[in-house]
Amino acid sequence: MNRKSRREFLKASIGIGTGVAAAALGCAQSSDSGNNEQSFFKVVHSRRSIREYKPDPVPTQDIERILESAKLCPTAGNRQPWKFLIIRDKDKIESLKKATIEYRLSSRDDTAEKDEELVREEIAKGLSGYFSAPVFIGVLTDSEASYPGMNSHDGPIVASYICLVARAMNYGTVYMTGSVPGIALRKAANIPDRYDITCVIALGVPKSWPEKPSKKPLKELIVREEFVG
Amino acid sequence: MNRKSRREFLKASIGIGTGVAAAALGCAQSSDSGNNEQSFFKVVHSRRSIREYKPDPVPTQDIERILESAKLCPTAGNRQPWKFLIIRDKDKIESLKKATIEYRLSSRDDTAEKDEELVREEIAKGLSGYFSAPVFIGVLTDSEASYPGMNSHDGPIVASYICLVARAMNYGTVYMTGSVPGIALRKAANIPDRYDITCVIALGVPKSWPEKPSKKPLKELIVREEFVG
Fold it and tell me: Which residues of chain B make contact with A191, given a CB cutoff of 8 A?
């Protein structure tokens, strides 16, 4: 590919994210009809955070394929200090939801004025989209790994790879730290103190693929050579 | 693609990383002959940490294309709290190298027994591969952004995307926190205290693409449903 045609290809890639392009990518299709040879740039440009899922299950082999590729991300000293906690059991997901509601209820400061049961219902309603996902993956790092100070890099990196690889297989994800907090996952899944919880990822077939959110222009983010003044 | 052929494709993808497959991907080619329509899985499976570079420059437009795609990674609340510090000026790179050597010299505990100049040369020798890169990118997060507690996710995520997107354009990278420490970058590029330094990324055309490092089998990393006992 010469420079000009490469430039044109990239220009086209950068345009992806509109509804039309998303449809062209087969975004709303289930994984079974997905194209695993999707171009790299199409995947990066079409990943979204998904907050509502179809009930379609995710086969075990698809979850494992996602993790198999995700764990090839860079990791300090090749330590791979991870555990991937896969939750698919409906009762276990319900426990995670309950623990999330209780935790979030305890951190609200308006429960004195409002009826606690009403606040609980309000929280549950806000969570229902997330909890339509058939799979939750807890991304954990091992505080007993060598150089545990590097876990704060390795956790987010592998988690973001999971979201990206899932997109390449036409699944949706959302990377959660607050909507479903680590503390609720720890309670629901009996996670030992040894493991730190980077995030909880919901995984499933998206109800729809949202439009691309507005992004800052690159020039706002770039500094050349040094900071001046 | 049906399930069987998809399984075979993935099996083939997972096999990538051997010298033969790397050659088939055109790994050792410069970016000008690169194929920007590389399959997503090929890119993920062929990314490596590169510790020696060819002197070939990286055109400005390629650097900007890498960042343009990388900044589409997930970011908490769509805050995008980043600055990308791009260093290409040879004198500036030399300042970064000098600051790195001085910092690493000051953190050695064997300089009492050894001649300081010898230790300095030893450190410089260990750094020469990294400093063969024509470009360094400092990934910074803004402590004055909303929810700065989320910067520890957003920094590593965008940095790992930079490395991955660069691979899709046939460039090599290495994500550094220790080899070239943030403190040296801060000094060399006059970075205000407001910005935290996630890492320094070297970027360029690899001298060669290393073999795939050994990875833990997935079964060692997976926990199903909950921790028991």
Answer: 227
